[in-house]
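Ops channel
N.P.: pipeline sanity check, posting one input/output pair.
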């Protein structure tokens, strides 16, 4: 059953998957590999995420989080970690 993207990350991933896989309608529960993805396209997907979303995603994540919603949640986790790391660096600089 089709479920549309619910947030900015899911919208961005949908656009990247559409471009990469040549599929028009992609829902958040769709699986990258079931839509025609394979290891070479997964490598390109990582490059496109880095280019378009400026997120450091590793190839392993594409295989572990192969649905759009799971990959989106993984990227949100990365963002939270980046923000936490930046806060710690900022606090550390203030203490010095």
């Amino acid at each position: 059953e089709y479920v549309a993207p619910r947030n900015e990350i899911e919208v961005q991933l949908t656009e990247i998957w559409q471009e990469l896989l040549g599929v028009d309608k992609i829902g958040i529960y769709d699986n990258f590999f079931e839509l025609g993805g394979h290891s070479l396209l997964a490598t390109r997907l990582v490059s496109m995420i880095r280019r378009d979303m400026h997120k450091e995603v590793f190839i392993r994540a594409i295989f572990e989080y192969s649905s759009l919603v799971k990959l989106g949640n993984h990227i949100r986790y990365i963002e939270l970690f980046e923000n936490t790391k930046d806060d710690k660096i900022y606090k550390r600089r203030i203490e010095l």
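N.P.: looks fine end to end. Helices lie at 8-21, 39-53, 59-64, 68-95.
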